[in-house]
Write a structure and sequence with these properties.
The chain is an alpha+beta fold. It is built from 7 helices and 8 strands; from the N terminus they run ααααβαββββαβββα. It folds into 2 domains: about 60 residues, no CATH class; about 140 residues, PUA domain-like, CATH 2.30.280.
Length: about 230
């Protein structure tokens, strides 16, 4: 964000990863549908508002100073700007994976998103479902320990469904699953990295225990290990 906000001219040609990172910022900061959607157009709008550009520079410096995260790419998503255990809004994640683009700004509200071209499914988990969710939504999602996560599928998924078989037959079917977890509605998701299936039971919904490729840091495990009231 600092480099983009501090730039007072049009950017030089960028590699795909840097361009995606700038598009994530553009979408997050200037995300109204009626506004110009590309990161180049966003930079043009910033240049017309030097006070806002200056504030973004200051904000980026403050956030960098507060962050203790190492700059480690999410395993399996190294071609994206996403960093392991960093916090992101859903729009940033979907932009990084190419589902949202400068021209495509479709809303997304489901808890899972299979990307067939990459054979990657994104698992979006909200732990506290006591607010803003339908009464029938009572999934039990929580970290069992730093390396294992209990997750329940959507109510439509069973062992005989396409989505259920995709989970059960992995990793032999080539699909990869990426876990993103947030404590509650309105907070940001943490990129927890790829998970592999350890066990599954039940039907509509299925209860799956995922094994994380990279263990959760102690702080995130404490935050994610509480079974929330539903």
């Amino acid at each position: 964000m600092h480099a983009l906000a501090a730039n007072t001219g049009l950017p030089e040609p960028l590699d795909q990863k840097v361009a995606l990172g700038r598009q994530m910022i553009a979408y997050q900061v200037d995300g109204r549908h009626e506004q110009a959607a590309s990161h180049e157009a966003f930079l043009g709008r910033l240049n017309l508002n030097p006070a806002i550009r200056s504030e973004l520079v200051e904000l980026s410096e403050l956030l960098q100073a507060r962050s203790s995260l190492l700059d480690v790419a999410v395993p399996g998503l190294e071609d994206t700007p996403l960093c392991l255990h960093a916090a992101y809004g859903a729009r940033e994640i979907l932009t990084a994976l190419g589902w949202l683009t400068a021209k495509r700004r479709a809303p997304f509200q489901a808890g899972v998103l299979p990307l067939a071209d990459r054979k990657v499914e994104l698992l979006f988990v909200t732990l506290d479902k006591s607010e803003g969710y339908h009464d029938r939504i009572s999934y039990q999602d929580y970290a069992i320990n730093a390396e294992r996560f209990h997750w329940q599928t959507q109510n439509s998924a069973g062992p005989d469904t396409q989505s259920g078989r995709r989970y059960l037959e992995s990793p032999g079917n080539g699909w990869q699953f990426q876990l993103f977890v947030r404590p509650r509605r309105g907070s940001e998701y943490r990129a927890c990295g790829p998970v592999t299936i350890e066990s599954a039971e039940g039907d509509r919904p299925m209860s799956i225990v995922w094994r994380l490729t990279t263990p959760l840091p102690a702080r995130l495990f404490r935050e994610f290990s509480v079974l929330r009231a539903v």
